[in-house]
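Structure tokens please, single chain.
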Amino acid sequence: MSSERPSRFLASVRRAIRTDPSRVALTEVHPILNATVVSRILDLALRIGESMFAVGASAHDVTFAITRVAQVYGLKGVQVDVTFTSITVSHHLGEDDAPTTLLRVVHAASPDHAKLQRLQALLADIQDGMGLDEARSTFRAIRRTPFLYRPTVVIVARALLAVGVAILFDATPALIVLAFLAALAAAFAQAGLAKARVPSFFGQIAGAFIITAFATVVAALGSAGIAPFDGVRPSIMVAAGIVLMLSGLSVVAAAQDAIDGFALTAGGRILDLTMQTVGVVLGILIGLGVAQLVGYGFERPDDALPFGPLPAQIAGAVIIAVAVALFNGAGLRIIVVSAALSVIAILGYSSSLLLGIHEGAASAVGALLASFIGILVARNLHVPSVAVTTAAIVPLVPGLTVFRGLLGLADSDGTPESMLVSIAPLVLAASIGVGLAAGASLGLYLGTPLRATLAGVAKSRARVRH
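Here you go.
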């Protein structure tokens, strides 16, 4: 009897430390589906994921959507591989069965947040019990839906963004009009090049060059004392153009993919983002070089130009967010939410600066607040969180800081001291960009579990009522 007690004790300790293989199910019961049905399910899931990825969703959201659709219709253990240019899905029922694998190439991404909103609504309907045939027909209708706005509206919306940037810096009415005209010319040029299927890299060069040339002419007329160009700060025009060129880049999605572990997709997005930014830099440097050749140039500001008073900041941020939402194809609901979140972002940024926080960290705070609140609001209003977050943080893009650095490089005499002075604003701009991406991504991650908790509470209350 006494010898059994130690053995029982040792057995209890072993059970507390080790797992029991006999209690692990060696097989799993799967629903019986023929190969045709499996292919139809995978095809629907893959096409939904491809469409989401092409209009701006992150790789994590695409993977979740594909696996969720497959699970709803009875396919478990679906493998999904998302790269920057393709998506592959595979389902292998067992060792004795051949796997079913499908692949679709993702064409160049073009944000269409209204379509993304419809795709997310389709996912919700599928989870609520929509049949496979109905889901397939609904998806085909969504896929054929054209972009919400005509090309002319998109071009004017892009020019409207420059108006918001000018107001953000408390510009004069004359400068606001000139910034709008410069951005309008650049937007028309980029639209024409895109229609001719010219790579967007060259479109960025052309747009940045046009805005810099426009600003150079304004600076020359102003220095000659010609009204209403005298007293106008052309550097704000170029800053507005830089924000315009960089507003369409998927900074948040690239950072989110990198944090989620989708290294290949993140690398592709970051490389694309880098090339588009280099295009802007080249266009501005070419414009500055041409200006120096003809004997005109810009006066480099000694200090960074701060934002205007708070009412101007709020008005400018709202206009920028509305413009970004418009040329990304957003509907009215997304536009309103984006405008409200832009106010939160600019207030968070300005409040952080008043507390003595560095500009990069202040940008992260503003982006964090906007994305965190945005992901909570997005659940209740059924809008894509990436859509409202992207539009809300664009007002914080450091366009003027980038231009100060590029202007310093163009005027540099090549000595190490002058190069360091010129590079300092570019380093500051890079820190602000990293802060925006990090803050927006962190807000999404902090808000996701809270959103899931709120959704669970809402479902529990719904069950109690019924």
